[in-house]
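From: lab user (bench 3)
To: helpdesk
Subject: output format question, protein + H2B

Hello, I'm new to running complex predictions and I'm not sure whether the block I got back is the full result or only part of it. Here's what I submitted:
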Amino acid sequence: MPSEPLSQKEIEDRLRELPGWAFEDDRIFRTYRLGGHFAASALVAHIASVQEELNHHSDLTLGYNTVRLSVNSHDAGGVVTENDFALAERVEALAPAHGAS
Ligand SMILES: C[C@H](O)[C@H](O)[C@H]1CNC2=NC(N)=NC(=O)C2=N1
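Helpdesk reply: Thanks, we reran it on our side. This is the complete output you should expect:
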């Protein structure tokens, strides 16, 4: 479901509710730190399942014990929309169970 680009103020307002998330180069992003590599890879798999459910996909980067998620909306021309924040909120909700910080 394409959605409208969010304004700078709307993005800033939403980011205040999402500690750890930031906005740069028309993307929102966050890096999660995990207890080790396998835990980080399990978080990637869980995020991927949610992304398939939402049909909204970020760029996920798996490090030794980190997962970086960076996303914007291709269907809105590569800018941040409500769909990006919907994904961010779902990931914020599932991350603690993985021991992510
Ligand atoms: C055809 C498919 O529904 C679209 O390409 C979906 C897939 N995942 C997506 N992910 C993101 N980040 N933006 C999109 O516009 C998007 N569109």
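A quick orientation on your result: The chain has a mean pLDDT of 97. Let us know if anything else is unclear.
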